[in-house]
TrEMBL record:
One GO-annotated biological process of the protein: L-serine biosynthetic process
Keywords: Amino-acid biosynthesis, Aminotransferase, Cytoplasm, Pyridoxal phosphate, Pyridoxine biosynthesis, Serine biosynthesis, Transferase
Catalytic activities: 4-(phosphooxy)-L-threonine + 2-oxoglutarate = (R)-3-hydroxy-2-oxo-4-phosphooxybutanoate + L-glutamate; O-phospho-L-serine + 2-oxoglutarate = 3-phosphooxypyruvate + L-glutamate
Broad class of enzyme this protein falls into: transferase
Reported cofactor(s): pyridoxal 5'-phosphate
GO molecular function: alanine-glyoxylate transaminase activity; L-serine-pyruvate transaminase activity; O-phospho-L-serine:2-oxoglutarate aminotransferase activity
The keyword Cytoplasm appears for this protein: yes
Organism, as annotated: Brachybacterium nesterenkovii
Job description of the protein: Catalyzes the reversible conversion of 3-phosphohydroxypyruvate to phosphoserine and of 3-hydroxy-2-oxo-4-phosphonooxybutanoate to phosphohydroxythreonine.
Pfam family, one: Aminotran_5
Pathways involved: Amino-acid biosynthesis; L-serine biosynthesis; L-serine from 3-phospho-D-glycerate: step 2/3
Protein name (record): phosphoserine transaminase
Length: 379
């Protein structure tokens, strides 16, 4: 059934979730974060980022992330201007010595591989690709000095393990793009050298910032390449400059202070709930509710066939071709339930539903009730 054939369906108000935002990024921001932004910090926004009030917020974010992720001794929380897209350039300049290996399992995991392939100072990367919805595995290679993949491929809803590559050398770094996974999925930080992300997913903030938890080996690599004479590294893309500034609780250029404040509030809230273990349990529960719902609806099929590879924070569900998924999502959007459309470039008749930590089980249950109502009305 296409959009033109879809009847005018009204969803009863008592079925609607308390908050209808289920976007995969930007994600919902809790009202308490907004209240804190507006009420508790009237004297910070609009002041110098080199002075104590703003530096205190940066320090609060760095300390909070260190508590949340509990990395091994010697790891540092580094942050800088720009999002994960900027960090791909930064890593190509400041962490990849000669050649990298990339797992490509969707749109976002392909972007870092494209950057290293285009870098004139690097050799062509090794690329291990998989069809969207499936999960490839890294292969130990003596010819690379960086292994890279996403913790969670936001475009497809595939979740990858974060673990060191069997047979890899001690001088080979593991870099994991955790933009949609960080804060919503449990992780052993000792298995990764650069766990990097932006704050607009689980941390319920705005973009324009990158954060990376970095191992001593990654910090040493950054220092080594910063001192090298065979590559030009612009100051804005210098990882060593970001490290030096982060140690002072600041960024090279003026940061978006509201972004930092929203993130700090979210980190504090997550720690109060029980930290990363609590967040992991919640996202397992809410994504599990959606996959269980798909099992009982013949019109709905999980896009990721392997249950072990299904994301806890971005659930992708194929809709039977007889039903136009865009019409279903449009009906929900008219009722304030938004951002469950599929990733545009994937081009599937699909629902994509985010279950970041700020999304409670009650809202997921209400979303399922709304979807049931629409699908049942279609007969």
């Amino acid at each position: 059934m296409n959009a033109a054939q879809l009847p005018d369906i009204t969803i009863p108000s008592d079925l609607l979730p308390a908050d209808g935002r289920f976007g995969s990024g930007p994600s919902r921001v809790r009202p308490a974060q907004m209240d804190a932004l507006l009420a508790a910090n009237p004297g910070i926004i609009g002041t110098s980022h080199r002075q104590a009030p703003v530096k205190d917020v940066v320090g609060r974010v760095r300390r909070g992330l260190a508590e949340l992720f509990s990395p091994p001794e010697g790891y540092e929380v580094v942050l800088g201007n720009g999002g994960s897209t900027a960090f791909w350039d930064i890593a190509a300049l400041g962490l990849v010595r000669r050649r990298s290996q990339h797992l490509v399992l969707g749109e976002f995991s392909s972007k870092f591989a494209v950057e290293t392939a285009a870098a004139p100072h690097l050799e062509d990367p090794e690329v291990i690709s998989a069809q969207p919805g499936t999960l490839p595995a890294p292969v130990a290679s003596a010819d690379v000095d960086v292994y890279a993949w996403p913790h969670n491929e936001t475009s497809t809803g595939v979740m990858a393990p974060v673990q060191r590559v069997a047979g890899a050398g001690a001088d080979q770094l593991v870099l994991v793009d955790a933009t949609s996974g960080a804060g919503g999925i449990a992780v052993d930080m000792g298995q990764v050298d650069g766990y990097y992300f932006a704050p607009q997913k689980s941390f319920a903030s705005d973009g324009g910032l990158w954060i990376s938890l970095m191992s001593p080996a990654a910090l040493e690599r950054a220092s080594e390449l910063a001192a090298a004479t065979d590559r030009w590294i612009p100051a804005f893309l210098s990882l060593q400059t970001a490290i030096d500034n982060s140690r002072k609780d600041q960024t090279l250029n003026t940061p978006a202070v509201a972004t930092l404040l929203l993130m700090a509030e979210q980190i504090d809230w997550m720690l109060e709930q029980g930290g990363l273990a609590w967040a992991d349990a919640r996202t397992r529960s809410t994504s599990g509710m959606l996959h269980a719902w798909a099992e009982r609806r013949e019109e709905i099929t999980p896009f990721v066939a392997d249950p072990a590879a299904r994301s806890q924070v971005v659930t992708t569900l194929d809709v039977d071709e007889r039903i136009d998924a865009t019409a279903v999502t449009a009906t929900l959007r008219r009722h304030g339930v938004v951002d469950i459309e599929p990733y545009r470039k994937l081009g599937r008749n699909q629902l994509r539903i985010a279950t970041f930590p700020a999304v409670p089980e009650s809202d997921v249950a209400a979303l399922i009730a709304c979807l049931d109502h629409v699908l049942d009305a279609l007969g």
